[in-house]
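tool_call: predict_structure(chain=1)
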Amino acid sequence: MKVTDHLNKANGKTLFTIEVLPPLKGENIRSLFDHMDPLMEFKPPFVDVTYHREEYVYKKRENGLLEKKSTRKRPGTVALCAAIQNHYKVDTVPHIICGGFTKDETENALIDLNFLGIENVLVLQGDGIKNEGRFVPEPDGHKYASELLQQVVSLNGGRYLDEDLLNSTPTKFCIGVAGYPEKHFAAPNLKTDLKYLKHKVDLGAEYIVTQMFFDNKKYFNFVEQCRAIGIHVPIIPGIKPITTKNQTSILHTIFYIDLPEELADEVEKCKDNSAVKEVGIQWAIKQSKELMKAGVPTLHFYSMGKSDPIYRIAKELF
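tool_result:
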């Protein structure tokens, strides 16, 4: 079932959904299922599965020269979505990114997803390679999420890269995109960022999932500004509880988000990460209750491979 169908079927009730990380290379899928098992108590109608692009290492050769080698940090998202959908009988939302893919490779991945009966995708530009200063697309790949989105829309219309295909079968993907209540780091301002977001919705995006945030005012203001410029698709808030003290600086550095002074002060008072975890859980519960009262379509939790904090939050709410 499509994400939008799940939201419509809920009739205004706030749902519980999660995003999971593929297990690290070399780990058994059981490690992922062990993480997910407790959370299935709250019956998430769909589960997002992230994609982590290839990373590169440089190995010194016998002649002293460096050889660039590609390493894949985490197993493939397509296979994991199939495994999760088969194991739990829930819908999955694979993340499809620009980085590391040609248009042909993207089309092949989408064909595989369609064969597997997966009806949802979240299209993203994706991160740049760590040792590159800016995002660099693959040769014959997409530079922007809007371009990737158009390729999915084309497949939904039965238009494949091979224009000579006759009687091609259209796909039926429900397409989600990312939204940034505190703006995307590459955008000069929020107004410009919203302009590009509206462009994606006009191209065919059917819902938006936000970057994590810790101040609900940022989300409410974001939704208000989206509606003001004609964005009327569902806007799903992304939630993540703080669990360690160093996250107060790491999250800002990686995701370019602010922490409210009150939350930062409470974390600073904590003597250890066990205390930080309690602060983070209680903050997320408070955040979630206010969002539910406002009638958000679903609370979408970024689990980051840790189910216990999410379980405790969900147990309080659902």
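agent: The CA atoms of residues 184 and 215 lie 16 Å apart. Proceeding to next step.
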